[in-house]
Amino acid sequence: MAAAGEPGLQGQEEAEAAVVVVGSCMTDLVSLTSRLPRTGETIHGHKFFIGFGGKGANQCVQAARLGAKTSMVCKVGKDSFGNDYIENLKQNDISTEFAYQTKDAATGTASIIVNNEGQNIIVIVAGANLLLNSEDLQKASSAISRAKVMICQLEVTPAASLEALTMAHSHGVKTLFNPAPALANLDPRFYTVSNVFCCNESEAEILTGLAVGSPEEAGKAALTLRDRGCRLVIVTLGADGCVMLAQTDSSPKHIPTERVTAVDTTGAGDSFVGALAFYLAHYPNLPLEDMLRRANAIAAVSVQAAGTQTSYPYRKDLPSHLF
Ligand SMILES: Nc1ncnc2c1ncn2[C@@H]1O[C@H](COP(=O)(O)OP(=O)(O)O)[C@@H](O)[C@H]1O
Ligand SMILES: *[C@@H]1O[C@H](CO)[C@@H](O)[C@H](O)[C@H]1NC(C)=O
Q: Which of 68, 173, 177, 229 could form a disulfide with 194 if both were Cys (CB 3.0 to 4.6 A apart)?
């Protein structure tokens, strides 16, 4: 794939990933039922499907589909779900040089039951994701330190995420941290090694203890998060777009978006983060507000189709003004 048509990414640099994701891969096992089962009850569903998920891989897939050169640092099981996941990454043009397989745990799974009203119950078994360790990160250190942007979330151990962020940050790589799922007592070092700290409303609430239900409240939460040491805070607001607060901003800025009718919002935040990483890596001179407007537009496309990665748009299907 042409690396975003940028002359600077040809020749020798071609081998290096501009966006490196250190994070999770999960196999989604989805059953559709008319209602959710009660304790001890067996019910029949009307449809079953397997999907590729996990926040890390989702973000990597979205960045890759926009044309970023990507590499995924992750761990799956030495099992059929793991084999299929690695094949899925390859299908998306993602480097799997550091996609490890282990015999010591199963590939991460999310068992999901969805009823006719769209309500769900979910059990996540992170499995192999939790075995991604320091040794794995050391093996990937040259890719991490040569990246333009490195992304982490919290579906691998916090220790692995923090080590990866610290490694990238110390090499001057732009770090994009998505603290999801949120931890109430996040290690304060996460803030100081994050160039971009991007969370949604509920994560902002958990992290700050403040209520976040409007752009104004999101701005207040962003001020609190910036005080903890991040250079740039972004809070996504669903159909309301996002709020940003850069280091030198005197007040938060709301970046609204064109509201669309959502079919399936699963993974919208991951589409947004993946898109933002693509712009940070391949259009570093674009004003931040433009990057966020475009990331909003890409995430809006993802909510208009069913599924997670299946709903993520490719560059070829998007309007040229986004590139
Ligand atoms: N109905 C919608 N219309 C337009 N954009 C949307 C809509 N829902 C979500 N988005 C886009 O997706 C982004 C992420 O959505 P959000 O709900 O905040 O994340 P999460 O997936 O973490 O719940 C938003 O910032 C916005 O850009
Ligand atoms: C924010 O993301 C979490 C996953 O970390 C999800 O469970 C939650 O529903 C999201 N909240 C909003 C308001 O979208």
A: 177
What is the value of pTM for the model shown?
Answer: 0.95
Condensed to tens digits (0 to 9), the pLDDT of residues 227-275 reads 999 999 999 999 999 999 999 999 999 999 999 999 999 999 999 999 9
Give the tokens for residue 100: 């490890």
Structure tokens at 266: 């699963």
Angle among Cα 13, 294, 2 to the nearest 5 degrees reads: 30
Q: What is the CA radius of gyration of the chain?
A: 19
Marked catalytic residue, from 28, 79, 270, 290: 270
Nearest to 267 by CA among 201, 317, 206, 312: 312
Q: Which residues contact 168 (CB under 8 A, 6 or more apart)?
A: 20, 144, 145, 147, 150, 174, 175, 193
**Opening angle at CA 91, ends 86 and 94, nearest 5:** 70
270 flagged as catalytic? yes
For residue 185, how far is its CA from the centre of ligand 2 (angstroms)?
A: 17
Name the β-bridge partners of 253: 244
Distance CA 254, CA 171 (A): 31
From ligand 1's centre to the CA of 192, what distance in Å? 26
Query: Which ligand minimizes its atom distance to the CA of 270?
Result: 1
Assess contact for 141 and 150: CB atoms under 8 A: no
Distance separating alpha carbons of residues 266 and 273, to the nearest angstrom: 13
How many other β-carbons are positioned within 10 Å of the β-carbon of residue 249?
Answer: 16
Q: Is the peptide bond before 181 cis (omega within 30 degrees of 0)?
A: yes
Instruction: Determine contact, residues 27/81, Cβ cutoff 8 Å.
Output: yes
Mean residue pLDDT across the chain: 95
From the CB of residue 171, how many other CB atoms can be counted at a distance below 10 Å?
14
CA distance 185 to 188: 8
Do residues 67 and 44 touch, judged by C-beta distance below 8 A?
A: no
Phi and psi at residue 320, to the nearest 5° = -65, -20
Q: Is the pLDDT of residue 198 over 60?
A: yes
